[in-house]
Amino acid sequence: MLRAVDTSVLSLARSDNEPPLTIPRDPAREAARRELSKRMYHENDPSWFQRALNAFWDWVGKLFDAASSATPGGALGLVVVIAAIVLVVGALWWRLGTPHRGPVSSAALFDDRPRSAADHRAAAEAHAVQGHWNQAVQERMRAIVRSLEERALLDVRPGRTADEAAAEAGRALPSHTDRLGSAARAFDDVTYGGRAATEQSYDRIAELDRDLERTKPVLANSTSGTKSTDSSRTADRNARRGAAE
């Protein structure tokens, strides 16, 4: 191309009646560069994206060739290895499911808007009707805790977590300790663990809420009073037995 342009430049530099001129090499090269820099010579050049894409596929091809040469069986062996890896990853994904974050129990159970237990129950039922089970589970658990606070079985404490509420409520309602713990874990799973609630999980929490409303708490005073009454009865029996002897 440079030689052709040099020839063109030399032919333009002379007339029909004059002998050919000899142009030094450097000016001829510069003239050729100026000629080749014109847009008409680059209309069909690939775009920068096409050049980058070609460079990428060249790199992939070199990488594949290098891997094929290092794998027993060449390209076929590499394909078999890749297929085996894909099958193993797919089997693990199918067996273990989508990875989830572990529940974080440090976040507060309630937000900054105080609502009654009846309000939380109504919100839970509204979400359940629409099939929004995550929100339904959250609101029903909040209804349980708010109801226990309204019954003075839990003190009103901002920042309480579901796990803390379940542990504290279990001391006043020992017959429901396990179910309270399960409800708190379900709340943490859907709120902080990225898991999806189901209709069955909501029904279990709603049933727990209804059962807690009908359950009488075991108070510490009544427990100590029962123990003192039993001790008095035992002392009376021992006194009668001693008098009879």
List keywords for this structure.
245 residues, mainly alpha, 10 helices, 68% helix, disordered N terminus
Roughly how many Å apart are the termini?
134 Å
Tell me the Rg in angstroms: 42 Å
Counting helices, strands and paired strands, the structural category is: mainly alpha
- Outline the biggest β-sheet: none
Unreliable spans:
1-6, 100-106, 222-229, 239-245
The global form is: elongated
Overall residue-averaged pLDDT value: 74
Summarize the helix and strand pattern as letters. HHHHHHHHHH
Number of helix segments?
10
- Compute the number of strand runs: 0
What is the beta-strand fraction? under 5%
Helix content range: 55-70%
Question: What does this protein structure show overall?
Answer:
- The chain has 245 residues and is mainly α.
- The protein is 68% helix and 0% strand.
- The chain is built from ten helices and no strands.
- α6 packs across α7 (162-172) and α8 (177-191) runs antiparallel to α9 (199-214).
- The longest helix is centred in the C-terminal third of the chain and has 25 residues, at 220-244.
- 16% of the residues are buried.
